[in-house]
Amino acid sequence: MIQALLGRKLGMTRLFDENGIVTASTLVEAGPCFITQLRTPENDGYTAVQLGFGDKPRSTKPHKGHLKKAGLTDKEGLEAMREVPADSLEDLELGARVDASMFSQGEIVDVVGTSKGKGFGGVVKRHNFHGGPKTHGQSDRWRHSGSVGSGTTPGRSWAPGRRAGNGEKPTHSVGRPRAQPGRSARRDSWPQGWPGCHPQAGGRGLLRCS
């Protein structure tokens, strides 16, 4: 059984439960995915499934050959292919379609994605430093990290340290999906409503739901 599915964040919305309570939720286009390769212990030393997601208008000849071997001759190309873990490869075949029906409403699902780009951020924004004092002679270093190393011994700063840098990073979040048929941007998939805000910029990037 496949333990994960690829998807894309569509945006944010509000969902109402049977009691009329509103919850800020994330719409995720979970699938459909296609099995493009099976990893077996005999050939690869581990068990996994390679899934393809999305459409690609133009692709290379090696990419088309890979899809042809999987029996996906009607596909011009796939936007992304990723390996996901699997318990076993029984009842799985190349070219098979996998969609969000593998999740049930109310099931806890782990969503993994990369947070949207925030550029080069300082230590206050990136690591929640509170900055330096605003009085006692310090007037121009409010958002500085302060001292990052010792003096004579060892005479250098230890790595890794919390420094300024790019703020984009992989993020995990957990939610319970609620299928929303009829509200999809694609006719062959249902967006899943996950309560709360999940990582990724809407409309681009890739999410893994497991």
Folded structure, characterized:
Helices cover 7% and strands 32% of the residues. The protein has 210 residues and is mainly beta. It folds into 3 domains: 1-31 and 100-116 and 173-210, Elongation Factor Tu (Ef-tu), domain 3, CATH 2.40.30; 33-98, Double Stranded RNA Binding Domain (2-Layer Sandwich), CATH 3.30.160; 118-145 and 160-167, no CATH class. The strands form 3 sheets. The chain has a 7-stranded antiparallel beta sheet with strand order 10-7-13-1-2-12-11, with no helix packed on it.
Q: Report helical residue fraction.
A: under 10%
Span from first to last CA? 12 Å
Architecture of the largest domain, CATH level 2? Beta Barrel
Strand order of the largest sheet: 10-7-13-1-2-12-11
SSE string: EEEEHEEEEHEEEEE
At CATH level 3, the topology of the largest domain is Elongation Factor Tu (Ef-tu), domain 3
Helix run count: 2
Report the uncertain regions. 179-190
Number of domain units? 3
Helix/strand/pairing category: mainly beta
* Largest beta-sheet characterization: 7 strands, antiparallel
User: Can you count the beta strands?
Assistant: 13
